Amino acid sequence: MTINPAPSPREPQQAAEAARELIELLEVLWERGRDMVSATPVSASQLRVLYSLDREEGISLRTLGDLLGSAPPSVSRMCDRLEALGFVQRLPSPVSRRQLELHLTVHGKTYLRELRAQREKALLAVIADMSPTSRKALLRGLTGFHEALEQSGPSASRPRTPLKDVSSA
After folding, report:
1. Residue 158: its pLDDT value, please?
2. DSSP-derived 3-state class of residue 92
3. What are phi and psi of 8, to 5 degrees?
4. Collapsing DSSP states into helix, strand and coil, what is residue 91?
5. What is the DSSP track for 41-61?
6. How many other C-beta atoms lie within 10 A of the C-beta of residue 18?
7. CA nearest neighbour of 33 among 108, 141, 125
């Protein structure tokens, strides 16, 4: 019987530092991928709007602002730009004549689908170079992170789909 030693007090700090470094590397990778996907790249903030609308179709500007932690005027300007690009449309709410609902257009959905496909392709290339043991450890760690986030994190940061098994990639 193997007894796991107590985790070192530095382990959470080391994990956070490794995650931060990974996120920074992914941001660079994502920027390159976004340039390849579309001649009309959007800012990181605008991309957060698109992701939010993809998860919460038909929400109001106020709700979107709450999800993003942004002031209504800032959210409205971002939506103006995304509407001008043809990614977002504002429609009257069936519940209240005074409210507008935000929806992704077909163009916006296509942009996200292509962006996600490009990102997944880039990730699969890296994951394919990992050993099977490392892939399993990555999946186990990401699954644990996802579960902890679901228990304590805001709904806006939760992925819509469960994590895929990458151990056989």
Report:
1. 44
2. strand
3. -70, 150
4. strand
5. ---HHHHHHHHHHHHSTTB-H
6. 11
7. 125
Residue 60 region by backbone torsions, left for phi larger than 0, else alpha for psi between -120 and 50, else beta: beta
Q: Which of 9-13, 29-33, 58-62, 83-87 has the lowest mean pLDDT?
A: 29-33
Cα maximum dimension of the chain: 66
Tell me phi and psi for residue 88, to 5 degrees: -135, 145
Task: Pull the structure tokens for residue 15.
Answer: 């994990």
Give pLDDT, residue 134: 92
pLDDT digits (tens, 9 = 90+) for 92-125: 888 887 888 999 999 999 999 988 888 888 888 8
Q: What is the mean pLDDT of the chain?
A: 82
Residue 154 has pLDDT above 60, yes or no: no
| 80, containing H or E segment | helix 72-84
User: What contacts 36, CB < 8 A, 6 or more positions away?
Assistant: 118
What is the number of alpha carbons within 13 Å of residue 51 lying toward its C-beta? 18
* CB 55 within 8 Å of CB 22: no
Nearest-angstrom CA–CA distance, 18 and 24? 10
